[in-house]
Amino acid sequence: MSQSSGASEQLPPDLQKQIVISAYVFAGSTAVFVWDILNNLRSEYYLFSRHRLNAATVGYFASRIASFVYSAVNTIFRRPAYPLQDCTVAYAAFNVFCPIGVSGTASLFFFRVRAIFDSELLPTIIFGCLWLAVLASSITTTVAVGAIGLGDPTVCVAVPRHFPPVLFAFSGIAITVNDTIVFFAISYRLITNFQAEQQAPGEQVKVLFSGANLPAFSKSLFMDGQMYYLITVVANIVATVMIFVPVSPVYHGFLVIPNVTITSIMACRVYRNTKLGITRGRGDLTLPTLNTVAASGNTVPGVHLSGVRFPSQHTGITGELRTGANESDFTEHEESRTDIQLHFMSRDKNSSYLSQPHDIP
User: Fold this and answer.
1) Phi/psi of residue 302, each to 5°?
2) How confident is the model over 291-335, as pLDDT tens digits?
3) Max avg pLDDT among 70-84, 121-135, 196-210
4) Within 13 Å of residue 217, how many CA atoms lie on the same side as its CB?
5) What's the average model confidence in pLDDT over 256-282?
6) Phi and psi of 253, rounded to 5°?
7) Alpha helices of the chain — where are they, by DSSP H?
8) What separation in angstroms does the CA of 357 have from each of 72, 228, 322, 340?
9) What is the DSSP string of 278-330?
């Protein structure tokens, strides 16, 4: 887009108000991001220095760094104190951080759902295609969105180019669909692995959104991941709907920065907590083991709680979680640790319970 020819003219009061409001929203989002980074510097140092580098870790730092740069630069150049001579060129330059951060965040969703489904081929293909859709759609933002300079001193404002609104919203729609499907897929997997089949439909819906009545360990897994993912789903929906609301163009995309910030913080938090073994809640967590017990002369599956405990908010648990384990299978180290492997319980056609390992990247 061409630079505004009337940059030296005074802006209308309504437009000035809209720009100021969006500037405060951007500044607030960036401040939250800075606080989150400072609050987790030690954890990120451990994550980088004490764990091998893999695709998931690359996605983590891509989401972290690119999303922060995208948020911070938008905040800086929305301020009149930092005027630019050519908003179009400047915005095109730093807008490339958007697809990097968004695709990095989506990759963390992909690796988590892949681990929950034990790297099965069909879920890997489905969610891999969804990740590619998010990547492709986020790249369209570099084409569909431009910037113009308004007022004196010049303030850079992102506006849609001359494309249909659906192209501008394509990225938000793809991200919302991906995050929503991932949320429900993981919730379904947790429920079917741990919850009784005789439960009423209303109770199953309650478990789907709250993790109620799940065993302590699976509920902790739910709370550490699904509640944060649910927040990202809501944030994506609100930001996408805002694009189609009949308001000033300044407001159409002013929730994009908060949305990028929230989704990156939440997805990175889930990955960081999982990788470092941090759990939510108070007290010890107990991992249920499934054994067979006799009833009415027949062998039927029953539930027996073993003595495996996990101290809450502890980052030094090492070893392998498996059925029939005991406390001697776990060691605690301050300087080094290995990745955690989860063994979820599933039942085959003969009602025998099988232990299936699920590696978390």
Assistant:
1) -135, 175
2) 444 444 444 444 443 333 444 444 333 333 333 333 333 333 444
3) 121-135
4) 20
5) 83
6) -115, 10
7) 13-39, 41-49, 55-77, 87-94, 97-116, 121-144, 165-194, 201-210, 216-244, 249-252, 256-276
8) 41, 24, 8, 10
9) ---SSS-EEEEEEEEEEETTEEEEEEEEEEEEE-TT-S-EESB--TT--GGG-
Q: Nearest 5°: phi and psi at 291?
A: -125, 170
For 303, counting Cβ atoms within 10 Å of its Cβ (0-12 exposed, 13-18 middle, 19+ buried), the class is: middle
**Can you tell me the distance from the alpha carbon of 171 to that of 138, in angstroms, rounded to the nearest whole number?**
5
Of all residues in the chain, the percent with pLDDT exceeding 90 is 25
Length of the chain: 361
**H or E segment at 357?**
strand 353-359
Q: What is the pLDDT of residue 268?
A: 93
Residue 307: the pLDDT is 39
Our measurement of the distance from residue 99's CA atom to the centroid of its chain's CA atoms, rounded to an integer in Å, reads 15
| Interval 189-209: pLDDT, tens | 877 766 545 456 556 666 666
| CA proximity to 25, closest of 265, 252, 269 | 252
Please say whether the beta carbons of 337 and 317 come within 8 A: yes
Place of tokens 């819906």: 205
Task: Determine the Cα–Cα distance for residues 329 and 242; give it in Å rounded to an integer.
Answer: 51
Three-class secondary structure assignment of 99-139: HHHHHHHHHHHHHHHHHHCCCCHHHHHHHHHHHHHHHHHHH
Q: What angle do CA 47, 211, 104 make, to 5 degrees?
A: 35
**233: burial class by Cβ within 10 Å (0-12, 13-18, 19+)?**
buried
Q: Cα-flanking dihedrals φ and ψ of residue 84, to 5°?
A: -120, 145
**What dihedral angle (degrees, nearest 10) is formed by the CA atoms of 8, 9, 10, 13?**
-130
**CATH (one of 1.20.120, 3.30.450, 1.20.1070, 1.10.1760) for 13-276:** 1.20.1070
Mean pLDDT, rounded, of the chain: 72
CB atoms within 10 A of CB 178: 24
Q: Where are the domains of the chain?
A: 13-276, 285-359
Query: Quick one: pLDDT at residue 243?
Result: 82
